[in-house]
Specification:
CATH superfamily of the largest domain: Glycogen Phosphorylase B
Shape: globular
Distance between the termini: 10 Å
Structural class: alpha/beta
Low-confidence stretches: none
Mean pLDDT: 97
Oligomer: single chain
Strand order of the largest sheet: 3-4-5-2-1-6-7-10-11
Radius of gyration: 23 Å
Largest sheet: 9 strands, mixed
Number of helices: 16
CATH topology of the largest domain: Rossmann fold
Bound molecules: adenosine-5'-diphosphate
Helix content: 25-40%
Amino acid sequence: MEIIHLSAECYPVAKAGGLGDVVGALPKYQTKMGHYAKVVMPMYHTKFLNTHEWDVDFKGSTNVNGWWFDFTVIKEKHNTLGFDLFLIDINGLLDRDSIYGYTDDTQRFCGFQIAFLNWLNHWQHKPDIIHCHDYHVGLIPFMIKYCYEYNRLNDIPTVLTIHNAQYQGWMGWNQSNFIPPFDSWKSGLLEWEDDINPLASAVKNAWKVTTVSQSYLEELRYNSNGLEALFEYEKGKCTGILNGIDDDVWNPETDKYLETNYTADDVEEGKQAAKGMLCKEFNLDAEKPLIIFIGRLVGEKAADLLPDAITSAMYTMQGNVNFLILGSGEPHVEWQLQQLINTFPGNYNSMIGYSEALSHLMYSGSDFLLMPSRVEPCGLNQMYAMKYGTVPMVRATGGLIDTVTDMGDAGGWGIRFLQASIGDIVHATGRAVGLFYDDKEALAGMRKHMMQIDNSWENSVHQYISVYQSLK
Ligand code: ADP
């Protein structure tokens, strides 16, 4: 099958979170299975762009309701990622340093989707599937069906994968001129609660919808930032497929960011070496249990609870625990987390920012990974942590339910708690600290066990292919 993945992110070209990891891995594993998977994404000014070679594949221009623009499609020359990668350049609109966060993001992603469809209109053949990831490309299923210009494409099946339903891309109707002329009788298929809602539109118009875990799919019917009724209504075409881990990138045996690689057999030595380096760099005590948090410092991740929860845990455990934070996001949370460095020197540290290299060292050099998320569609961090022998401490929500059991249950290996609250985080910290000091044998057994859990992509890729096949 020929599958085109459309996304705003793809690791290592441009990544802000899990979406990038998934779109960097899924096409590679589909290609390995004998399918022809491609990724098409916007051309940002990233390091990847400047360090790779490109061919120009197509040049086009378009006029959308009086908005004229030229675009260029370039293709990475050497198939470095294990699949064909195409970037769309729209001068001045997409070629920026960051992926998101501009006031004209609506126009940017509309321009990207229009350029893609105009390019596709020129192909001699049609792909078997167009697979859209998240709201940034959520208008594609509607545009293919109802924009007059793309009539020729309207029998290509579209699949939407929802990585995060919190962000929906709301646009006022005054921005409808960013959408090429369409059958106005169908305008209801763009809308949710009086706005154009690209995510809702994709759910309505895509032939199939997937979410990145089964539990998240069930949650969306009760908690999806206003779309609950829609998910209830469309549940028949929705499936939950858990994300996998890209073994080429996330594997302590081969990880190029680690000085000492390790397997389940020498996990204690491997982790000790990484922990030593980490603690030295961040002025922490390697003899104490090290709990880390990695992620966006936003409400979904319950990052706002961290400053008070860490303070409370530190006093409750009488300093017998260390915390290390890597992340960026809401400024007041960043500020509070930085203040704690002065409050708990030697026990706490944080790095505000984004560092792929440090994240790898932290997954391997820590004992516990804290994820108190309010919303977690799948969560990759806990899967990476387990692969590196680090015990996840997670709030039981979304994909965290599907991937982590509690050590109190038979055969369990993680720490689960129910509420995204300071009390629950402190209680979970107490359990982690107890395990670290009082039951080293159980901890060692858990590490070995977690490292052998199969969270690879192979299984999930088969499920995606079944979804595509159901549309033929
Ligand atoms: P989300 O996509 O909601 O942010 P996921 O758990 O699905 O969360 O994926 C997060 C990904 O982003 C992981 O690969 C994680 O290691 C990475 N990540 C998040 N924040 C940072 C950061 N500040 N530095 C390095 N990697 C980060």
